[in-house]
Amino acid sequence: MEIYIVQLNDTIQSIAEKYGITVEKLIEDNGLAQPNHLVIGQALVITFPKQTYIVQQGDTLKEIADSFDVTIMQLIRNNPHLSDNKTINPGEKLVISYSTSKSISTNGFCYPFIKQDTLIKSLPYLTYLSIFNYTTTKEGNIFTYQDETNIIKTAKEFSVVPLLMASTLTPLGEQNIELAYNILLNETYQNNLINLIIQIMKNKGYQGTNIIIYHLNENNQHLFFNFILKISQCLHEEGFLLFLSINYNITTNNKNHYANIDFSKFNDIVDNLVFTQFVWTSNYIPPAPVNNISYLRELIKDVSLKTPSNKIMISIPTIGYDWTLPYIPNSSNIYTLSLDTVLEIAYQTNSVIYFDENSLTPYLYYNQFYSENIIQHLIWFIDARSYMSLTQIIIDYNLSGNAIWNVMSFNPQLYTVITSQFSITKLITSTDS
């Protein structure tokens, strides 16, 4: 796999010819909604499959999968258009396999209002699906937002393990540290919360829980450990999985903040330790990279010294953020954008995409004309170069895999980067709930 950066006067045809691939393949691998709207500085993924097959008259997907000793799920991952319509036509070229380096687990995060077609497109690439539908309230009670039964059912049909995502956050990402401490300091509230989580998982068909914790530091780590130990014992006795997602702070760029936290205490009590960065527009964060990948690498380097690498996951963000400038704390507007939207804004405003070598993430500036005023914007986002840097951390430290925040919109370029390097682990085969 290679990454090409769009230059002045490039066209989708000229790039395809340069690498000896079809325009259709280039468009599909990168999910180009507007293939003729290329932007200077845009990153494109160029893949070279290990094995391909030309469909013959009378072929079926199952027959092709069986003949190459692969799964239908793998064919769908390597040929994303098949998720929309599993019909194949004679003469069609299918990607059978890539030269992958290892198998990894992938954990996608979603809200219960995810569109069904987006969910179906995303599930072939996932091992786990963490569903954000429950917020912990006072006294360890749980508030739910809407019914997610169909999401759980669909996930299992694609051999994806559904995880109940539990936190003190609202759907807008608003934190309540006082509420978190109320639970951490009160065993009665803890017992109530744990019992409710187990009850919901049994009733809904979840197979595990993903607990998100904020504000972990040297002084309070014993409180979090005691709580996670208790919930671990209860969940594992019932046969459920337990994931622990730690929201690390990249804005401080202060690696020493975690130097005195003993993550190894969680080694034997959680099934996966996920280092992630949840960012919501409601947080009113100042303009900054969506993810500081260089800092994350240093963090994982330290953590992996005491924690088994096969229990560590790192997050991959899929969304960008658009700030109005100059930035005014608690006042400036911040917008969440998909990669498609970022690229279309760049094209329509004739902007150039730049790349920050420190955080390993792209950004751009553009002007918005409103009446007689000009409003400047700054967008930080993630592209193929960032995905490659993140997957390289997985390879270098032999990690369990990644956690995708989030899968509410389908991101073909991300999945191309993943599937061209890794096989995706599937832990369940039955679609029965």
TrEMBL record:
GO MF terms held by the record: oligosaccharide binding
SMART domains: LysM
CDD domains: LysM
Segments forming domain LysM: 2-46, 51-96
InterPro entries (UniProt xref): Chitinase_insertion_sf (IPR029070), GH (IPR017853), Glyco_hydro18_cat (IPR001223), LysM (IPR018392), LysM_dom_sf (IPR036779)
One GO CC term on file: endomembrane system
GO biological process, one term: carbohydrate metabolic process
Protein name: LysM peptidoglycan-binding domain-containing protein
Organism this protein belongs to: Anaerosacchariphilus polymeriproducens
